[in-house]
Amino acid sequence: MATSEVKLLGAWPSPFVLRARIALNIKSVDYEFLQETFQPKSQLLLQSNPVYKKIPVLIHQDKPICESLIIVQYVDDVWSSNGPSILPLDPYDRAIARFWATYVDDKLFPAMKSIAGAKGEEERKRLIKEVEEGLALLEDAFKKITTKGNNNYSFFGGDQIGYLDIAFGSLLGWLRVTEITNGVKLFDQVKTPGLVNSAESFSSHGAVKDVMPETHKLLEFAKTLMPKLAHTN
Amino acid sequence: MGSQKEEVKLLSFVCSPVCRRVEWGLRLKGVDYEYIEEDIFNKSNLLLQLNPLHKKVPVLVHANKPIAESLVILEYVDETWNHQYPLLPQHPYERALTRFWIKFADEKVMYGGYVAMISSGDEQEKKVNEVREGMEKLEELIKGKRFFGGDKVGFLDIALGWITYLLPVWEEVGCMKILEAEKCPAISAWVNNILSHPVFKDCLPPKEELLAYNHRRRKHFNPALYN
């Protein structure tokens, strides 16, 4: 498939863009990465995602696909004969993966993002507790999923990284940035050993390691956002 | 994999639009299910057991395994009973578009509409305008089509079906107008197509119950309006 047939419009710090990149890598799809400039948003972004004007946008055969998890499922669907399946094969396992990915996006990630902009110590503590509880629940799910049928898999997806690994793993960098900038330990070997071990394997996985931004670079980037974050709702 | 012949139960709440969606999906696919009504103000041990994380309906139980979140349930149902009446389109791009528009509609129109219903004054007006903008995007989407799924009802029709029977209730309870026939003639026609469709018209909750429940919610968030 010609490189120009598949384009990904994105930005290196975005965990959502990272999801799309990992999915494309798993399927060995050649693509052109277009760095979005922002300030102002590019014509391509405004044209290809007029509804949300957000990245990532996958452009395949000139057709845009938006929303990171929708992109991941699309990639899995289109390149179904390339490499391992991203979503599990069994419908029930797929439902479980989708359920937890929805949880990560609807509850866990928003709570994590809000910590920096929390108004007052009470709200900060409440949000931190929410993230800790969320990670504990995810750890529980990890144990159940990876030990099903007397197995002991490294990933939610089994031996290979899958949908839920991508959904959660893409946030690891920002999770670490949240820990550093707020002086709090959210993700540790004692409380969430399964997730921590899996995270290490995830980060060094062939489809991930070259596209996952280094934490120190994210930290530098976060510092440029911080003053703004403190003043937004 | 749960076989198509194994028992299906649905934990539901009569006034919930997201529960209703699942019922329509099951009926379109001809799947028999046991309906279990849940009192959401007095949650049963069964619900707390089956959906410990969110403690919410709907929950589908198939071959004794629970699945929560209406859209996750519908994709599961579509994949498990895959030989009958496909809900999602076959083409990957169409599937991606369907999922995109459901997400958009749930956030901007359904959640937005609910917030508008429980609000008042300037806050409500602002929300109503946002929801109307969302509705106009859906209008563009359905122009020239009988259903969002084309000639036949599909996933998006099921997901948006709440507009046909619940939006009028919200408009009445919230004293607001969101769907205007002159601005959205295609959606208005679609509403009639859905309400006369055999699966939908025989599976609608009683209006009185919807009015009572939604007034209760509005009163809860905005007690001053009811004194």
In short:
Chain A is an alpha+beta fold and 233 residues long. Helix content of chain A is 53%, strand content 7%. Chain A has a four-stranded mixed β-sheet.
Structure description:
The complex is a heterodimer of chains A (233) and B (227). In chain A, strand 3 and strand 4 form a beta hairpin. In chain A, 53% of the residues lie in helices and 7% in strands. Chain A has nine helices and four strands, in the order βαβαββααααααα. The model of chain A is unreliable at 229-233 (pLDDT under 50). Chain A has helices spanning 15-26, 43-48, 68-78, 91-115, 121-146, 163-169, 172-182, 193-203, 215-229; strands at 6-10, 32-35, 57-60, 63-66. Chain A has 233 residues and is α+β, with helices and mostly antiparallel strands. Chain A has a four-stranded mixed beta sheet. In chain B, helix 4 (92-118) runs antiparallel to helix 5. Chain B has two domains: 8-80, Glutaredoxin; 92-226, Glutathione S-transferase Yfyf (Class Pi), Chain A, domain 2. A four-stranded mixed beta sheet of chain B has the order 2-1-3-4, covered by helices on one side. Chain B has helices spanning 17-28, 45-50, 70-80, 92-118, 121-142, 155-160, 162-165, 167-174, 185-195, 198-201, 207-221, and strands at 8-12, 34-37, 59-62, 65-68. The termini of chain B are far apart. With 227 residues, chain B is of the alpha+beta class. Chain B is built from eleven helices and four strands. The chains are: A alpha+beta (233), B alpha+beta (227). At the A-B interface, strand 4, helix 3 and helix 4 of A face strand 4, helix 3 and helix 4 of B. Chain B: InterPro entries: Glutathione-S-Trfase_C-like, Glutathione-S-Trfase_C_sf, Glutathione_S-Trfase, Glutathione_S-Trfase_N, GST_C, GST_C_Tau, Omega/Tau-like, Thioredoxin-like_sf. Chain B: Residues 6-85 form the GST N-terminal domain. Chain B: Residues 91-221 form the GST C-terminal domain.
